[in-house]
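Q: Structure tokens for this one, please.
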Amino acid sequence: MATQQKAEESERVAVDRSPGSPRAGSIGLVLLVAIALVGAATGLLIVRRDYAETYILALLAVLASTGVFSLFALAAGILRFAGKQAGSPMARAMVDGAFDGLVVTDHNGHVLYANAAYLDLTDAADGNDVRPVERVFIGDPEVSESVYRLLKAGREGRRLQEEVRIAGTKGRPARWLRLTVRPLGMKKRDARLTVWTIADVTRDRERQENIFQELQHAIDYLDHAPAGFFSVNAKGDLVYLNATLAEWLDYDLAQVGSGGLKLADIVSGEGAALLTTLSAAPGDVKVEVLDLDLKTRSGRTVPVRMFHKVAFGADGAAGDSRTLVLNRARDDGTDPQRAAEVRFMRFFNNTPMAIATVDKAGKIARTNGLFARLFHGVLKGEGAQGEGRSILSIVMERDRQALEAAIREAAEGQGDIAPVEAALAGEPDRWAHFFISAIEEKERDGEAAIVYALETTDRRKLESQFAQSQKMEMVGKLAGGIAHDFNNVLSAIMMATDFLLNAHKPTDPSFQDIMQIKQNANRAASLVRQLLAFSRRQTLRPQVLDLGEALSDLTMLLRRLIGEKVVLEVAHGRDLWPVKVDISQFEQVIVNLAVNARDAMPEGGKLMVRTANLAANESKNFPSKGMPAADYVLVEVSDTGVGIAPAIIEKIFEPFFSTKDVGKGTGLGLSTVYGIVKQTGGFVYVDSEVGKGTTFRIFLPRYVPGAEELEAEELPEAESPAISGALAAADEMVRQAGADLTGQGTILLVEDEEGLRTLNARGLVSRGYTVLEAGNGVEAMAVLEKRGGDVDLVVSDVVMPEMDGPTLLKEMRRRNPGLKIIFVSGYAEDAFQKSLPEHGQFAFLPKPFTLKQLVAAVKETMAG
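A: Here is the predicted structure, written as tokens:
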């Protein structure tokens, strides 16, 4: 039977029905041509001699023309000699006898060529039984879908390949065939021809299945081996975890394949850092033995020994690791030495201090997990042989000498080595404290010293912030004290100029000089107010307002301040929370920042003012230090100017510090911003990059009314306790043209500055009041007792020797509860308000003040 089948296969030959295929010659055509030539010759014999020559010439001309055209057709390939095949006979033989089946079809699906292998693979009996591929396998439902895709690709002129399984037929077993389709495209006339290739890949498939089964057996064995196995990629994702280790750690294997587990999820403490810092030369394979703790899903620790294997590529990058895990906890009872070793390694790797052993040159031999995490970049190595694993490369170059000397002392066996504090290399903002101790047994691995590293970055930042806050506090106290003394001096100057102006007419030559003195005194008073703002000792009149509306009203003023070269962009957040600020002081904050931004953009740029709500959960993650988590309203003022150099950014809020030229600034703009924001209860921070711009961020606490404020709102206005704004009323009265500032009554003037007291008394007497003078609170009480309490108003300084203003108020109110009093001070009203009795009614007049402001405040308070 087999012999018969082989004979049938050997009888199959290639089928070629293409237009260019060779054909056998025709004997009838040759005989016809011969008969035509004999007839022409016979005709010449019977023609008269006169006409014979003409006929002969005509016949020769026809034969000559036919020959010439035949030569042209032969040269162009239109005419071929019988028995001459197109193409190389060797190539034709190779295609006809190819092992894979080949078939060529036209656009209608008709077979133009099929080799013998195709006839065999499709079980075609002969050339008359040959069929295209789609008709051969159309009855097999498992194959028809693939054949349809191939047929569609062939019609679209695309290449496509499919592998299909053919059910066994005619005594043949099931087979795997690889079907390929591609356009022929050799010539323009072949553009719509399609070449199909059929290859029997049954043996390849069987070999793949065998390999897969063997691999599956190996995986099954690895999964249930008595040891754990896992693999980690460079990103720290677990790519493989065997069933044994998953059982130890109480994890589901499905989590590993889906990328749900990372190395840090199964390694306890800082051990994960040890597994990611292994380094070697390119092309090397390195294995390291580690004793670590794994952790189960419930958080329980499992002490293990790991054989961690990593292969490094040609570029030195580590590939996926292969790690064998042996559970060391099971033999603690049978081997005390191993149990002690496990306990020590657990202590070594889980201690909260970074530890490493080094040789006398500083090269790192061993590290614990925390050291590996803190100095990950160094442990990865910089050279092919790990030259970068020197502990000296951890610190900056300026600190290496001290660390190297300490290691040298330990290598020589010395004790009591002084610790070394150094900045870490590549990260100047990170610091660490290094403690070095000697190793007695220096033979082992060449280790000469143990280095304990404790990162001190956070401590140094806190120390720097504390020192900065202390410096600002001291500068603030100094500024406040200076401002108080200056206010007394300026009050006397301003009061004296008022007297001089009243005594001179505008036509007097001295009048302009006196006005110049007054203007400079007012300018000095403005500088003192900025000092008080920085020291947070100025008087604020806070009110609840919407920042969006307040800043919108300020937009026109900002546009005039910054000029035409700078573009102003204002963007407010929706539904801003209310804040409680002094609107005039806060406007001064925005104006100061806008002026600084304008000066930072001499060639023009963009100034952006943005507001937004910042919830407590967002402020907690905000990079600003020292700001508690709470609800804030954020105000950002950004510019695109020259920026602030890092060397001076810590000093910008200090008073009198300025980068501007002499005469172009007082250095109090940003210090005023700092003081106002701080006194309001907010925070201000700055971010700047040289050449790109600066951003100031102001965080104002969200205003939430308290129970007392809600009750006060419900009370009638007359019963609501409040501090009177005598200064505001006085200013309003001064602004009224022709206001009558004269009055009558007895005023007790209490002031420790004799010159200022004399001038104030003189001014009040000039307006019709009777003035009693006292140098301090004790003298004032004596005067009051002598008068029997017959005083209409007390005008008293706050800070005085022996008895200050608040104490004086308590004593006077004890004797006369209805006594009216005006406090004058160079300090803020809030500085002494807390020391007053509850609901203490008084007016406040901040120094320095003019004569008109004083008499206006007195008349307003007495009219009460």
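A few notes: Confidence is low (pLDDT under 50) at residues 1-10, 381-388, 662-667, 710-738. The chain is about 40% helix and 20% strand.
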